[in-house]
Amino acid sequence: MKLRFLAASVFSLGAIAGSAIAESALPAIPAPLGIPKPAATNDAPYAPQPILQGGVVVTLYPPDSPKLNSARLREAEQYNLSKAVPGRISSIVNIHNPSIEVHTVEGGLNTGAAVIVAAGGGHNTLNVGSESADFVPFFYNYGVNTVILRNRLRRDGYNVQADAVNDALQAIRLVRAHAKEWNIDPHKIGIMGFSAGAELAAPAALFFEEFDKKNSEPTDPLAGVTSRPDFVSLVYPGPTPFARGGNPSIPRTAPPAFITCPSAGDRVHAIWANEYYLAMLQSGIPNVESHMYGTGRHPGDPLSDGSRMSAGLADRNGMPFGTWQYRFIDWFRDLGFLQKPGVETRAVRDMAAFLQLPPPGAPAKPASTPAAPAK
């Protein structure tokens, strides 16, 4: 019995030693390949680089635009990489030459729809990993083109309303101006904002007319191209223009909206989401949809198991809130955005019918009096 035990022990030690020898003989794991890097700086304005393979990057403004900070225009963007996933860019800061990164889909799959994604990050970082890059393959499967917005940040000295919101509106105009080249339907271009990114998307849905008037000079290469989004989506949004007692004018042509957020677990953002939703309802804007989930918290907030709430498309440990993106696709399909390019959407038809109605509070038209019978 003792001999049998001794033999087993020797075998076990031999197996361990053999494993160690085998592991030591293995070649070293190579460094990850193809990690995106910021461009080098030179005397020219900084040239933003794609964060995903195949992205077409276009800067929002000409290099001599007065909207840019010429003193910092040559500074390189800074990429913050994931500590767990090699090559994954989690966020970007130091953005002084704002841009869009366009990812198109195959012709046979293409619906012509384009979603401009505006990442969150509290205006301190731009969380392009979970709230931008992850959406490129997701939307691709539905034939939807994805445009990653790289807007300027408060941490870098910019004003959210004067700079970042204008970046979003300019991005919409720029995509529409190049729609034919990118096989995008100019009537299917909208914006989806996450948290702080929703602080750009919501104003874009309200103030596009004002922006277009201010940018209609003949010297503006995009003059005459509307910045109106054809749809807007607010995901666990930061404060909208209706927050803290705000009462902005709502244009009659405000776009349809999809709004989603956890409820009590993310109470402040849920209130901001509902303020926007109720304002649209009171104005009668068609095709506004809201999904408030009973469980869930804001991205980054601690959970009871010691982990933190994830963002973007993450499954969120089986929470129903982790499936909000499929509710968006349902809404998107319902409004006709997943049809082939050039086919009029239900969103357009419903807006045309809405514009035929009198504005809320307008006096009713007097009933026509019948003509007197002929004598």
Short description:
This protein has 375 residues and is an alpha/beta fold.
For the largest sheet, list the strands in their spatial order: 1-4-6-5-7-8-9-10
Instruction: Using the coordinates above, name the CATH class.
Output: Alpha Beta
H and E order? HEEEEEHHEHEHHEEHEHH
Q: Mean pLDDT, nearest integer? A: 91
Give the strand content: 5-15%
Q: What is the CATH architecture assignment?
A: 3-Layer(aba) Sandwich
What is the approximate shape?
A: globular
Helical content stands at 25-40%
Count the beta strands. 10
User: What summary fits the major beta sheet?
Assistant: 8 strands, mixed
The figure for the number of domains is: 1
Q: Which fold does the CATH topology refer to?
A: Rossmann fold
Low-confidence runs of at least 5 consecutive residues: 5-11
Supply Rg: 26 Å
Count of alpha and pi helical runs: 9
Compute the separation of the termini in Å. Answer: 129 Å
Under CATH, the homologous superfamily reads: Alpha/Beta hydrolase fold, catalytic domain
Briefly note the structural class of the backbone: alpha/beta
